[in-house]
Design a protein that fits this description.
By secondary structure, the chain is an alpha/beta fold. The protein has a single domain, classed as TIM Barrel. It contains 13 helices and 17 strands. The strands form 2 sheets. Strands 1, 2, 3, 4, 5, 14, 15, 16 and 17 form a 9-stranded mixed β-sheet that branches. Strands 6-7-8-9-10-11-12-13 form an 8-stranded parallel β-sheet. Strand 9 (about 170-175), helix 5 and strand 10 form a beta-alpha-beta unit. Helix 4 (about 155-165) packs parallel to helix 5 (about 185-195), helix 5 packs across helix 8 (about 235-250) and helix 8 packs parallel to helix 9 (about 265-275). The protein starts with 10 loop residues before the first helix and ends in a 29-residue tail after the last strand. The protein binds N-(aminocarbonyl)-beta-alanine (URP) and zinc ion (2 copies). One zinc ion binds near residues 113, 334 and 336. One zinc ion binds near residues 203 and 259.
């Protein structure tokens, strides 16, 4: 990478245990509320001070000149799938390559969606499996969302200890795929998760409508990748969003978080719920903001098979509107990478045989910065709100994460707004063989990422270490009754 502005750091020194003080000088320090030129002092992995000028610091402090750069809380990606086994394939990025790519893209925490375990397994089973996956491999901090693949008394009674003892305060349930829940199970899950102070997240798609359409298309010989999108049009998703919102209401106003929102009709249902003061939040992803169903006309259309699929072009602007008016709360990636030349080829003669998902964890921050901040659609503080502050608030990580206040973990990203980069897969640090954003131009780029005081990425190179990431026990979820706002239990 040709860096417009590069750092020369003594990385041997920074990996030595002795070095525990860093001063970041004169960057534009941005949080979810304001931007001001300041120094940040880091001691022992925590933010020790933020002030216009800091002159009192230990003798061996590492000094980083951040003039001309934006210094922001490290990104929090609350939707990844590392090392996930989807039955027909295992995703190509594990917790090492996935978090390495995340770090190089300015992200310092991931909350990964655990995959389904063996039929009938309990909630703790997958937590143990995933802790093993990440323990010696993750290079940045991490947590997991619980996964609900069936409902019975054991599962319902386990939920409290998952939240209180394990620090898992959000769970995902699916309305499609193999372990979809029926309405009764959804209601039971919503009621119990609300009772134990956990947030229900949902993959909303209408399974029956998709199955019927898929069968019809395949019978007609319509097997090409583009029919993946035709098999699950946006109404399949929007219907399921509306159903979930109403079930959450019937479950006593249980808090609800919609993952990977891809279209304007679904967003309208979210807006209506929030106008009615229902505690409902929504996440979208860069692929729905920047790509659309025209990708399915390309020769390499298999690269873009994911669910929900890419939508008609006009949906993109509706989602941007949601980011601008505050009705979408987070931008995550749904990073679920499969190789194009091998794994995705399973779908070349039948779209329904293609493993669903695409990579993106390294591109979220630069793409949103370039297409959101640099185009003037969103402010710097709104960028921080979408990429770290609200993810931290909603998922029980705040103020340890998503904050630049004294005492917070020193998780930071230093963006150079002048750096221009054309994305190409060679520049990236994941373990797959393509990026869906190939050839896109980014104005602004993360030049340094710091995780609990250590530089984990610098000048486009990975500088961290496997196993340095820690499992973060998240706090229970608490919401007030104003849709779209979150109350942190310690504030
Ligand atoms: O196609 C996708 N999004 N795969 C990952 C699993 C999911 O539904 O989030
Ligand atoms: Zn999903
Ligand atoms: Zn996902």
């Amino acid at each position: 990478m040709i860096a417009h502005r590069s750092f020369s750091l003594d990385l041997d020194r920074q990996s030595a245990d002795a070095l525990n003080a860093t001063l970041i000088r004169q960057g534009l320090v941005v949080d979810h509320q304001q931007a001001q030129k300041a120094d940040i002092l880091i001691l022992d992995g925590k933010i020790a001070d933020v002030a216009p000028v800091i002159s009192d610091y230990p003798a061996d402090t590492q000094i980083i000149d951040a003039s001309g750069l934006y210094v922001m809380p490290g990104g929090i990606d609350v939707h990844t799938h590392f090392n996930i086994d989807v039955g027909i394939a295992r995703s190509r990025d594990d917790f090492y390559t996935g978090t390495r790519a995340a770090a190089c893209g300015g992200t310092t925490t991931v909350v990964d969606h655990m995959g389904f375990g063996p039929k009938g397994c309990n909630l703790h089973h997958q937590l143990a499996v995933y802790k093993d996956y990440a323990r010696d491999t993750a290079v940045i901090d991490y947590s997991f969302h619980g996964v609900i693949q069936h409902i019975n008394d054991e599962i319902l009674s386990e939920m409290a200890s998952m939240v209180e003892e394990e620090g898992i305060s959000s769970f995902k349930l699916y309305l499609t795929y193999g372990y979809k829940l029926d309405d009764e199970s959804v209601l039971k899950a919503l009621i119990q998760l609300n009772k134990v102070n956990a947030l229900t997240t949902v993959h909303p798609e209408n399974d029956a409508a998709i199955a019927m359409r898929r069968e019809m298309l395949l019978e007609q010989g319509k097997t090409a990748p583009k029919y993946h999108a035709e098999s699950r049009p946006l109404e399949c998703e929007a219907e399921a969003i509306a159903r979930m919102i109403n079930l959450a209401k019937l479950a006593g106003d249980a808090p609800l978080y919609i993952v990977h929102l891809s279209n304007g009709l679904g967003l309208d249902y979210v807006r209506l719920a929030r106008r009615n003061k229902q505690p409902v939040w929504a996440e979208t992803c860069p692929q729905y903001l920047l790509l659309d169903e025209r990708c399915y006309e390309r020769d390499d259309a298999l690269k873009f098979i994911l669910s929900p699929p890419l939508r008609p072009e006009e949906e993109r602007e509706k989602l941007w509107q949601g980011l601008m008016d505050g009705s979408i709360d987070t931008v995550a990636t749904d990073h679920c990478s499969f190789t194009y030349h091998e794994q995705k080829q399973r779908g070349k003669d039948n779209f329904s045989a293609c493993p669903n998902g695409m990579p993106g964890v390294e591109n979220r921050m630069p793409l949103l910065f370039s297409e959101g901040v640099m185009t003037g659609r969103i402010s710097l503080s709104r960028f921080v709100e979408l990429t770290s502050y609200l993810p931290a608030r909603l998922f029980g990580l705040y103020p340890q994460k998503g904050s630049l206040a004294k005492g917070a973990d020193a998780d930071l990203v230093l963006f150079d707004p002048e750096q221009q980069i054309t994305i190409t897969h060679n520049l990236l640090h994941d373990n797959t063989d393509y990026t869906p954003y190939e050839a896109m131009k980014c104005h602004g780029w993360p030049m340094m990422t710091i995780s609990r005081g250590k530089v984990v990425a610098c000048n486009g190179e990975f500088t961290g270490k496997a196993g340095n990431g820690r499992f973060i026990r998240r706090k229970p979820f608490h919401a007030d009754q104003e849709g779209g706002t979150v109350v942190n239990e310690e504030e």
